[in-house]
Model the fold of this input.
Amino acid sequence: MSLKIATWNINSVRLRLPLALRYLSEHQPDVLCLQETKCPDDAFPTRDFQRAGYGHFAIYGQKGHHGVAIVSRLPLSAVGARKFCGIGDARHISAEIDEDLGGRPVRLHNFYVPAGGEEPDPEVNPKFAHKLAFLEEMQDWFANDPVMRDHGVLVGDLNIAPLEHDVWSHKALAKVVSHTEVEIAALKNIQEAGMWVDALRANVPEDQKLYTWWSYRSPDWESSDKGRRLDHVWLSPSLAARQVGTTILREARGWERPSDHVPVMVELTSA
DNA sequence: ATGTCGTGAAGGTCACGA
Done:
């Protein structure tokens, strides 16, 4: 037996509901974490997910922008949504998955980290300052709250591609928001504070290119392949030992009216 | 530097965020 957890920045859950249902049907994750749902909670398409066998929800959305949700066929409990930087802008939700994995439930965190705007200078760009403050608060939280990081899975669109081969050109993107030194250092600090293990890179050597996002602005995304690894799955040590594998569904970028991000899944063994 | 999406509030297109 195993537990399969997926994460996907879907860029509007209502517009792309058919794609979400297709993904669930074809790949059968137990739990799907969504970002950029762009959907108020009372308009979330729970009925459609229920019909597909996913009847448990943890939702934190708002009108227009951002928004996160956990859609599950397993019961969820202890749902929490943390407001970072004193702003309730629907960027984090967590829940416990009541599935026996080594004798205790799994704590799942679903994040949508601020994109950070264009200019990588917190002095002139308040969006970049917000991103850095958000990352620092994540670090403090996981450093100081062992319960929140214990037996945990952290997923989401972290909007940072940390390694050289997490972007199509390390040199071209050195000063582009998502791959700057200061962001990469901040992400590393969070990882260390929470003792998180990077599950995607556990299966793919660091010298191989690995992407989860391709810009809409490139009409030939597949041939030019100028991607970035912005979406992540992190595991606490107790769960890293249970990892079976990960899958990045690159083909979903070529689906009709796609998101610019593709679904990412991790499989954990319960044996 | 360019490019393309989705949403909301207007108002029959544009601003904004990404």
Summary: Residues 27 and 265 of chain A are 9 Å apart (CA to CA).
